[in-house]
Design goal:
single chain, alpha+beta, 3-methyladenine DNA Glycosylase II, Chain A, domain 3, Alpha-Beta Plaits, 2 domains, two-stranded antiparallel sheet, two-stranded antiparallel ribbon, 11 helices, binds iron/sulfur cluster
Length: 295
């Protein structure tokens, strides 16, 4: 018998007649095809199964989820994968605190070791009242754009803070603010994620130990005479700090003083002797207000 049999016409509409036997055959065929597909998917699923690493999942849960990339990985997922695989240490996330590092180390069955807290610091003190400008800048209010304007921006000093707050925009922790033309970091809020460091076109921001109390707030490599012509608080490379330091912790290179934090004892003699007061003497724990007072 034909599967489709036209038995008559209702007006011009053809009517189909299918026997029970044919319905049964069709159902059996569909069932068989379904079973074959099911078996195929089951085998393929087993073959291509990606095993979930329990350690990776647990490590990821402890990581802060900022995806800032300060650890050197693409984001928190990538770092969790690297830690679980033993390719990164338990304390690799600079945003997480030492308690979190210990928890991650617990998952990995290792010790997180001691991590020294670091915070971002802006190496410029050339606020609006301390620096001269070459011209008025009416361009886009963005440091990277202003830095490529003629003369490396409107300020007389081409090394200093441009003050348009590109660093402020990238900080997810409200830890950096521009006050009187200069960016300041609130060390209590800073998580050392380094996003501001990557953003500053003049490379003015660096991580310094949280407990260090003395910093050189200048980045100019100009000779003293040229520094003085544009900024009343810049480093003039006079070596007074070098002579004052009993611990060999200050060096002047390319007309700029730099403190070796590993040698610095915070005795304060360099700050005392500095004629331009470019060395910031800050007690641990003081935050943005203290920095602002010093300007
Ligand atoms: S100031 Fe903000 S962006 Fe810069 S390191 Fe600190 S938390 Fe990160
Ligand atoms: S520190 Fe750098 S990014 Fe921040 S305001 Fe100054 S120039 Fe701009």
């Amino acid at each position: 018998m034909n599967l489709l049999e036209i038995v008559g016409n209702l007006g011009n509409v053809p009517v189909l007649s299918v026997s029970f036997q044919e319905v049964g055959i069709a159902a059996a065929l569909i069932g068989a095809v379904g079973a074959v597909i099911g078996i195929f998917l089951g085998v393929a699923g087993k073959k291509f199964e990606v095993e979930v690493d329990e350690k990776e999942v647990q490590v990821r849960e402890f990581l802060p989820g900022n995806n800032c990339g300060a650890c050197g990985y693409a984001g928190c997922d990538s770092l969790a994968q690297a830690i679980a695989a033993g390719q990164a240490p338990a304390n690799a996330c600079p945003v997480a605190n030492s308690a979190v590092h210990d928890q991650i180390a617990g998952v990995m069955g290792t010790s997180a070791g001691k991590t020294e807290k670091k915070v971002a610091f802006v190496k410029c003190a050339g606020s609006c009242d301390k620096t001269k400008v070459k011209y008025n800048y009416y361009g886009i209010q963005d440091c990277k754009k202003a830095a490529v304007a003629p003369g490396k921006g409107p300020k007389q000093c081409g090394y200093g803070c441009l003050g348009y707050g590109s660093c402020v925009k990238v900080c997810q922790f409200d830890a950096i603010h521009v006050i009187n033309g200069i960016a300041y970091v609130d060390k209590e809020k800073c998580t050392s994620c380094s996003m501001c460091i990557a953003e500053c076109p003049n490379n003015l921001i660096e991580l310094v130990p949280y407990n260090t109390g003395h910093f050189v707030r200048c980045s100019s490599n100009d000779k003293g005479k040229d520094v003085k012509a544009g900024c009343s608080i810049g480093c003039i490379g006079c070596m007074m700090c070098v002579k004052a330091c009993e611990f060999d912790a200050v060096k002047v290179t390319d007309n700029l003083a730099k403190i070796d934090y590993s040698k610095c004892t915070n005795c304060g003699k360099c700050a005392e002797k500095c004629p331009t007061k470019v060395i910031l003497s800050e007690l641990a724990g003081n935050a943005i207000k203290e920095q602002t007072k010093a300007v």
